[in-house]
Amino acid sequence: MKAAQTRLLDRYVRRAVEQSVFGRGRNEYFCRYKVEVAGKSLPVLTTLDKGRYGVIVFESLAKYANMDKWNRELLDKYCREYSVGIVAFATPNEETLVGAQLKGFPIFMHTNLKLKDATLNPASPVLRLTRAGETAWGTLPGDHWTVFRANSSTYEPVAWALKHNDYTASDERSLQTTVVQDHGRLDGVQRVLFGSGLQFWLHRLLLLDALSYLSHGQLSLSLERWILVDIDDIFVGERGTRLHEEDVAALLASQAALQRLVPGFRFNLGFSAKYYRHGTALENRGDDALLHNRDQFTWFCHMWNHQQPHLYSNVTQLEQEMMLNKQFAIEHGIPTNSCYSVSPHHSGVYPVHEPLYLAWRRVWDVQVTSTEEYPHLRPARLRRGFRHQGVMVLPRQTCGLFTHTLLLERYPGGRQRLDRSIQGGELFQTVINNPINIFMTHMSNYGNDRLALYTFESVVKFLRCWTNVRLGSAPPLRLAEKYFQMRPDELNPLWGNPCDDIRHRRIWAKNKRCDTLPKLLVIGPQKTGSTALYTFLSMHPALVANLPNPTTYEELQFFNNNNYLKGLDWYLNFFPEGLANSSQITFEKSATYFDGDLVPRRAHALLPNAKIITILISPSKRAYSWYQHIRSHGDPVANNYTFHTIITANDSAPKPLRDLRNRCLNPGKYSHHLERWLLEYSPHQLHILDGGQLRSEPALVMSTLQKFLKLTPHLDYNKLLKYDPKKGFFCQAMSNEKTKCLGKSKGRNYPPMEERSSKFLKKYYTPHNTALSKLLVRLGRPAPQWLRDDLSTAR
């Protein structure tokens, strides 16, 4: 297969599987998939006597047919036992085959054909999303099609086409089978075979149907599709490009036509009132016509002067601008209760401009907005939703029409390109692949050539012609509730660095800086010496620590608790606005980061190039130290139960006891947590410190650490640190021969751990310590002395 064709097939196969959802009651969620490169052996197909895959997709039919006998028998057995189907795509052959039999199957193929005029078999049980009855006229893409012929009743055509030089379809014998279903009557394995890849838009629909059919409905897209069309920039536009009265009449007529096909449909108009009646005399009448028919539309606030919100430095200014728009709405009878708004140029929505969210809530009670920018404009299929400051942010889709798209003759690529997008192309696939679509358009798209009316009427008719999707529309608030019912995992945002995306930098507040974001994270875990390390690092002139958090002191704990939902501005406020010189870098330490489930992904999204430092001590010692620490802080559970009772509590114990057990034991599963960090960060970004050595030889550890961080100047910590016999550890050396040590809560002397608790923990942590030892070998890192000791005494 040609490289470009392989990439296209891979992209759409993955996208089809990504978009497949299971339906359980009111919740829908995406299924998981795995891509395997063909090798000498099959991937693991079962786990605990359960099948791992619902459908198996082969990019190459030839590779599937030519599998070695052993793997083929194993695969067929798996498919029969777990009722798993197979999808495979024919690839171009270097030589033309005429009537060649597919190896191992009673089916014959003709290859390297040019085809035209595709039709579907209305009796095929595979069809679900796809609707039969029409013909896709014209030449099919590519000239390397494969067609199938079989005399066995196990095979049934799904799709047909004509050879390119045929001029009639009156004779059924001239129809060529391009997609065939194998009912599995011969060997018990059901299959759907495609005669070409996914360049043909109809094959993309049929792939979704094949996945649904072969998985017995488990991998099935919902047939519901929700559509909302925003018309931004109402009353905004250059003279000569705005709506006339007849354009408003056409808008109403088109809306009525769409309502017959899309129940509940209404155009959603966003207005900037400052520019009301700023056009020609005919355009001013158009503005009046919109207001005269205001009850026929849904409305939302834009900005009074169409200004970008991120250019306003405080919330009061934004509120004043929004109030002007609201006063206009009240005076002219425009409904103000949609709870929806869109920001000009997506400014302030993402990257988040906090004053915008506050002003929205106060003035308009905005609960829903939409943007193309989260996490990035492209690719559109990866856009997600999130919630911030009580506002639900939905992903917004484009339809190929922009502010400057006024005339069909000037459409980029011409009408042919627009029609391709509508008739199975990008716009059509957007609706197919997204259960909820919010399309961005502009007022100018509805005047002039009325391109938007043509676009949406055409794509809706094409969807009705070729699919069984049930189109509907609803107000934004209802769509937001539906969206997050389907994708509750998207409610919490994933903050990225605005400076990594030039578009995001342009729509971020001018007073915001990215260069003070930390380039170093000390991630803990707790009670391993992270506070001491934080102090030692702060002594270096090239390192700038975060400002203290009033509630958690030196720790910000941003990535793993509710502070993350406060947003990026909250985090940035703890770092200086500027650095003394370019060689300085900022850092922060939060010991709870190490074992936080969401922390590695969140940290990498914002700080992908950061260096990560973790400190490890004997997990048994760490667990006991943590227990004594919270006991000294008056934790009622720790004060009411012995350490042994806590660590040996079973799952039937009271929840507070189980929670404390987990907080004692889980951070010590070092290899498990490190593996999660290594999924996000490369090994060369991770530095693992021996906590025992940090306590006994801190100067040596800091020397190694300076080299890892490439810090200049290289400090001699032997001159900066001094052992304090009263505290029992090294402290900062002062000029008067005294030391400045950590507070009373650090370096406490605890009673020895009970022997029975020590034995229990050694046994408990042995498999985890063994896994850590293997991980360190894999990373080429030395095993610390405490690990060697723990493993030797466990034998």
UniProtKB/TrEMBL annotation:
Membrane spanning residue stretches: none
Binding of 3'-phosphoadenylyl sulfate, residues: 625, 746-750
InterPro entries linked: Heparan_SO4_deacetylase_dom, HSNSD_N, NST/OST, P-loop_NTPase, Sulfotransferase_dom
Domain of life of the native organism: Eukaryota
Subcellular location: Golgi apparatus membrane
Sulfotransferase domain sequence ranges: 518-766
Family: Belongs to the sulfotransferase 1 family. NDST subfamily.
Name of this chain's protein: [heparan sulfate]-glucosamine N-sulfotransferase
Source organism of this protein record: Eumeta variegata (Bagworm moth)
